[in-house]
Amino acid sequence: MPKANVKSNPVEWKFSMLPRANVFHPTLEEFSNPLKYINTIRDVAKTTGIIKIVPPEGWSPPFSVNIDKFLFTPRVQKLNELEAKSRCHFQFMEGLAKFWTLQGVEDVKIPTVEHKPLDLYALHKAVQDIGGFEKTCTNKKWGSVCKKLGYKDRSPTSAIKQHYEKLVWPYIVFRHVHCGESLTGEISKTITADLIKEKMETTEYKAPTDSKKELFYENLFCKVCKLGDRDDAMLLCDECDDPYHIYCLNPPLEKIPSGEWRCPVCLAKEIDKGTFGFEQAKKEYTLTQFGKMADNFKSRYFKMSCQDVPIDRVEEEFWRLVCCVDEDVTVEYGADLLSSELDSGFPTMKNFKDDVEKEYALDPWNLTKFADLEDSVLKYISEPISGVKIPWVYVGMVFSSFCWHVEDHWTYSINYQHWGESKVWYGVPDTGADMLEEIIKKEAPELFTKEPSLMHQLVTTISPKTLYDKGVPVYTLRQCPGDFIITFPRAYHAGFNSGFNFNEACNFATADWLELGRKCVQLYREYGRFNVFSHDELVLKMVNKVHSLSLEVSEAVLRDLEYMINEETRLRQNIKKKIKKEEFVELEKINDEKRSCRICNMTLYLSGVVCCCDKDTMYCLEHDKICACPLNKSILKYRYRVDELSQLKIPVLERIPNLKTWTERTRKLLNATTKKPSIDELETLSEQAVQYQYVETEEYKQLKHVIDKAHQCMKITSQLLIMKRRSSRCHNTSPALKISIEELDNFLNQVLELPCRIPDVSALKDHHLKILNYTDRCNKAFIQSSVSLVQLEELLKEGRKLEIDLPQINRIKQEIKKTQWVSAVNEVLKRTDISLKDLQVALCEGSSLANTKLVEGLRDKIEIKLLGGQRWEEKAITALNSRPRPTMSKLRKLLQEAEKLSVLLPTVEEVRNTMNRATEWCRLLSDIKLDQSKGHYTNLKQLEAVLLKGHMIPVTLPELNKLADKVTSAKCWYDKAAKLFIRKGQPKTKLLEVLSPRDVSDNINCHRALEEKLKENTAREFTEMKRRRSCNMLRTEQEEKGEINEDDNVYCICRRGWNSNKGVDGAMTQCDLCYDWYHNKCVAIPKHKDVKNSEVMKDVKYLCPLCQRTKRPSVEAALNLLINLRQAGLVLPEGVALNYLIERAMEWQEKCRSVLIKHKPLLASTNKQEYIDVHITLKDRNKIEELMVKGDVIELNLDETKDLWNLLSILDEHEVREKKMPAAKRSSPKPSSPQSNPSTKRKKMPSDSSSSTSTSGRKKRKDKKNGNTDELCSAHECLRPESAKVGWILCDICQKWYHLECVYISTKEAEKIEDYTCPVCSGGNNYMEESRNPELVELPAIS
Q1: Is the preceding peptide bond at 62 cis, omega within 30 degrees of 0?
Q2: What is the Cα 909 distance to its own chain's centre?
Q3: DSSP classification of residue 311
Q4: CA dist., res. 623 & res. 1132, Å (int)
Q5: What is the pLDDT of residues 953-966, one digit of tens each?
């Protein structure tokens, strides 16, 4: 991963701007032929070495790389090792460290002088500049050395000398002796081997005991002196085990080292291991991953967004990092990635996806086919050479760079940036190449000593400012996405990337390159550099295809071919004197590595020498000595004989004159200015080119292009003239082909600019002149203001016959359209029923007309009318949708404004309907108020409907809130009334029903009619209740008498028989109002703490749910509810019913009080067993009972009903028959009849565990021992026994009681009877019919 370790106080380094290289902007036509365009600009462009070509606007090839599948491994670049001086510094320090480490010295440290680390490389260079160690010591120049190192005074002179002599000087001597480097000065006598040996001979030497390599071999001899003495001074190499005396080494050692030690041979190999180039990164990236890494690195380094970093700052920082040894910044660069293995950024014919990509796949600027263009020399190389013919792609990040270099074989190069941030280029033209090489060699001679071809390895750079300051012509460019950069032959170039980008590049060569390519091959021979391809082979391949070469290429090939033949002839003549044996070999079929010269690495094609000792190794003819074998034993292998080589140039020589003649003739005719050739002459030249195989020349292509263009012009001219004649005959108004006057002018200019003559040009000129005359007449007519519609139509008719698209014709059409529009608009403005859409259409049609006073005036009128309608529409829509809602006055005002506009408005009907709805609602509300004033009422549903209707109208209604308050009040009152009256489980909608007498309809809208209906139903309700009481009482008597079967009747609200609930509880209770029976499980029975005591329950009054329909609140509560309704100002039918209910209750209370006052003494009696002689008639009693019934049907809680109930109970207890009996009997206590005692008759309690086992579900069996003598005998003629103890018996069939005396049974007999059947049940139907006859039954009279 890239890393940045920048010190806090870097040395400031400024980069001055360099002169800009040439930038070219070709036209679309110039851009169509790349090599031809480059040839036209070559003389100007090559002066800067590099140029930038900006494609025409619109040329942008799509990027065809899959960014997620594009995997590559970048190179690692350490910026402070790129610069020449920095690289020398690092290599020197690395070699020095290896030297001392492998000499066994493990603790070598950089010394410090005056608290600063001593730069040993700078010390070495300073001593070398003076003349070497000996000269520095002899001439006492150590003070100068201190000054060069930056020390102000001479105080550290001795220390610096000591450090040099101890650390640097032994390494310099070693490099001189074992690595062949030159040494300035002489070796100091103080460290000679003789002195060390002499010292060891006089001093007993003892090797250290802790030496890791202390070995003693008596049979080993020193590799220097060849002696085996002094084993104590013998060292063995840790690598090769060779022995050396410590005093035989150069420089000699004073003692055996304690650490690892290498002999001079192994040490020299280790030190020279350093390689030139960049290491590969350990991580593989996709484009997406590399882009994220690059952007993150740049933003972190500059502490800002990538797009915000100025490129000038990146440039200054890059060269500062490169030139500063102390900086440690590492980046990664995806360079020299083969596009054939990954992907090319350009679409190709193998991967295009649509027509656009196919177009760019065939484009000549597509780099995948650039090297094979016409007139490109490299197209004759059949091998797909990567980086030359097959493009390389480059993925860069900030600071990633390419060092100074020239292209292989000094070819051209072209580089295209697909996308990303800019790439900065520096270029030196071929005129400054030698200067650049000399300067870099002077800056870093050590590098070139070790690697002479260093400039071809793209690993060493130097600041362009340094070159510029020393007189080298350096130019710079900034390549942006979509730009092409072209470098010329032997133009040195370098650069760096300012950020993440993607570039693609390849090489190409034109005819002018052949001479330079030959020179480059000769230079490669001197450097011993391998060739990328064989230059001789390329030239001869071009010779074999001479018919496809242009004149310039043919001439260049001929020149290079002659030079090649002369050189080969000279070498063959020299070698034939020494080598006699020759052999023909097709060298092009041999692998390049095997046919490369062992000495100079030259790729051989014409000939080579093979020694008899190694037939797989070849040598070129330039070398006199190839191996130890005699040269006469070698074999000469050749591809062509000398005479064959001479024959090869004959086709070229023959072709050039003929081609030159034809080319000159063609150029002369095509460039003629005075007398142009005819089309026939050009076609004759074209036929000659085909005959003599000139078809691949550039001149033939130009000639063919001119001929094709001439034929095309002839065809168009013929069509134009034919249409002209046809239109004049048939007046066709819709021709198949119509061109504009500009196109006709351009076409005529093209015809006139053709380098040849074509027929019918004069007729075309006449037609053009006629058109010009017509346009002049039209323009004059436009100036006149009194041109009629007829004249305009005549001009239009004439213009259509010309079969050309003239602007004047369109202008005439506009004038005609304007006249028609003006007439139509005047008609529209007179109408009052015009819509906004019609106005918009008229305005739209008028906007396309030319601006005149008349048109603008009419447009203004339409706009005023349209704007007024649109504004009204906006106001209306805003009003209808506004909150709060608009008032009726506002809508009325809108309608008045709409009437003034005289335009059909879409929203006016909606506003009018809304206004009508609001008016109708107000009228409806007024009618309701009027009806209420007349005595009519409105129920709550009607009020809610009116309120909902008002809410649906988008208008602010003044009475709506009041009505809403009234409805809310009515609902609140209705809820209170329902809560007060309605029992749980009853619907609230039954309020009017329960407040009114039964069978009152709820659709009466007048309270007077409702009151009349209430009064009418009150009487009907009372009559119906009397009927029900009689029927139920009669049914009960018939059941008791056994006249009907109880199991066949239905009771209760469940409408089932009396014993239908026998499995649960068969007990039933009789309603004290309607006398119907109800199951105790089906209805709510009044609760009492002594509910099992039948005597107590006799005094409890019970009303069934059908008789007591409400909760029956008090009169006071109902009166308060009625007062609340009247205070709210509401008139509701429920209020009328409640008022009538209260009036009934109060009227009934007055009647009841009069009766209660009359019988107050009777009510005051608290002892019910006391006999009081009451004289009351049956009629009066019935009236009291009717009064109680009338009170019971009123749905209010009236306390007087209890008093009447008590009064009737007292009367029933003192009831006597109207018969003649003795006074003593009348005054004696006697039981009352069960039929006449309502308390006994109405209460039927279930049996308990203390009662007799023979009980029924409806009646409780009473034993006479219980002392219950209140009931009367059921015998037909009761004897009325009045003794103190009266015996009774119960019939087990009819469940009726009888006196024992009345059924003629004694007390003893009764005790023996288990099941008893009365005479009625055993006497048959006669007795039953007699018992049912009311005439035979004497009702008990009330005395």
Answers
A1: no
A2: 46
A3: H
A4: 135
A5: 888 887 777 778 78
pLDDT in tens, 123-136: 777 787 778 878 88
* Number of CB atoms found within 10 A of residue 533's CB: 20
What confidence score (pLDDT) does residue 394 get? 93
CA distance 812 to 790: 11
Tell whether omega for the bond before 884 is within 30 degrees of 0, i.e. cis: yes
Beta strand spans in 254-408 (E): 279-280, 328-338, 392-396, 401-405
The rounded distance, in Å, linking the Cα atoms of 1327 and 60 is 128
Strands 50-53 and 22-24: parallel
At position 369, the amino acid (one-letter code) is: K
Which residues neighbour 961 within 8 Å (Cβ) at sequence distance 6 or greater? none
Could you give the C-alpha distances from 341 to 337, 413, 1113, 1134, 1170, in angstroms and in order? Answer: 8, 21, 103, 98, 133
Determine how many CB atoms are found less than 10 A away from the CB of residue 1232.
19
Tell me if residue 886 falls in helix, strand or coil. coil
Could you tell me the CA-to-CA distances from 972 to 944, 977, 1126, 1130 in Å, in that order?
Answer: 13, 9, 13, 12
CA distance 410 to 542: 19
List, in sequence order, every residue forming a beta bridge with 376; answer none if it has no partner: none
**1076 phi and psi angles, rounded to 5 deg:** -90, 160
| 921, 950 Cβ separation under 8 angstroms | yes
Provide DSSP, 464-528: HHHHHHTT---EEEEE-TT-EEEE-TT-EEEEEESSSEEEEEEEE--TTHHHHHHHHHHHHHHHT
Instruction: Tell me how far apart the alpha carbons of residues 884 and 354 are, in angstroms, rounded to a whole number.
Output: 60
**pTM for this prediction:** 0.51
Positions of the chain with pLDDT under 50: 5-13, 185-219, 729-736, 1061-1065, 1091, 1094, 1096, 1166-1171, 1216-1271, 1324-1343
- Specify the length of the chain in residues: 1343
Distance of alpha carbon 383 from alpha carbon 371, whole angstroms: 12
Cβ partners under 8 Å of residue 1052, min gap 6: 1068, 1076, 1077, 1078, 1079, 1082, 1083
Tokens representing 91? 């290599």
CA nearest to 964, candidates 997, 988, 940, 994? 940
CB atoms within 10 A of CB 1130: 21
Nearest-10 Cα torsion for 1052, 1058, 1063, 1068: 60
The rounded distance, in Å, linking the Cα atoms of 18 and 140 is 43
Report the distance separating Cα 274 and Cα 457, nearest Å: 14
Where b means 16+ CB within 10 Å and e means fewer, 405-432 reads bbbbbbbbbbbbbbebbbbbbbbbbbeb
User: What distance lies between CA 582 and its chain's CA centroid?
Assistant: 76
Alpha carbon 1290 to its chain centroid, in Å, reads: 98
Greatest CA span in the chain, whole angstroms? Answer: 196
Residue 9 token pair: 């106080």
Q: Give 346's DSSP letter.
A: S
Helix axes 535-544, 551-576, angle to 10 degrees: 120
Residue that is written with structure tokens 């016959």 in the block? 801
Give the whole-angstrom CA distance, residue 908 versus residue 452. 97
- Under 8 Å between Cβ of 80 and 325: yes
Which pLDDT belongs to residue 1269? 38
Query: What pLDDT, on a 0 to 100 scale, did the predictor assign at position 224?
Result: 77
pLDDT at position 272 is: 64
| Contact of 1049 with 1057, CB cutoff 8 Å | yes
